[in-house]
Write a structure and sequence with these properties.
elongated; alpha/beta; 2 domains; ten-stranded mixed sheet; Rossmann fold
Amino acid sequence: MLNVVTALKTEAEPIIKYFKLKCKDNIWQNDKINLIITGSGKIKSAVNTALLLNKFPYKTLNFGIAGSETYEISQGFFIHKITDTDTGFEYYPDFFKENSSELFCISKPEKYYTLVDMESSGFFEAAYKFLSVEKIILYKIVSDTPKEKINQKTIPSLIEKHISVIEELIENENEKNFEDIENYINEAKTKMHLTQTQLNELKNRLMYLKIKNSNFPKIPELKTKKEVNEFIKSLTS
């Protein structure tokens, strides 16, 4: 499961459409994504990010547009450092790749920096209350420069070009989930006599625990079919 945080509705719309998300209590969802639109500014970003993570404490991506005096429109970057220009505070996400950049967070439109937005420090501060730094991710797409500003109507097309970033993060999360489950099942096979029916039921309940972000319990050594069935049922009871 992956959380996605955007500031603007125009940033969110292509994601909602692509992943066929449905809205429930102001959060757009399917079985892989929870998305919230925070509104512009550090305070709104912090408040709504906290609301999302209070319900769904999963790896969280802040995804959206930014200005730049260095890069060209449509370039996208993971963020390895955030500097709040009002407070001077610095934040260091621990998830980024080679195409990463520093990001400056401002409270109102002013000068351009290497990369600049108005939400990132608020987002990071809120997310850090719920998550470790390797689960806090920022990806920014250049939408305007000192020489060129795009029309607001073209923002969705910029977002669409980078949706593969979200797909890759979802795929990576799913791979980790299945790896954990397979390791657990392999250990269970050495300590229990599992029928195929029990094996399928165990997989289903482990996947449920993963979705709920719950830890897997220690595997006991069991011999009878009844003991195994009771243990499997206890996983989600």
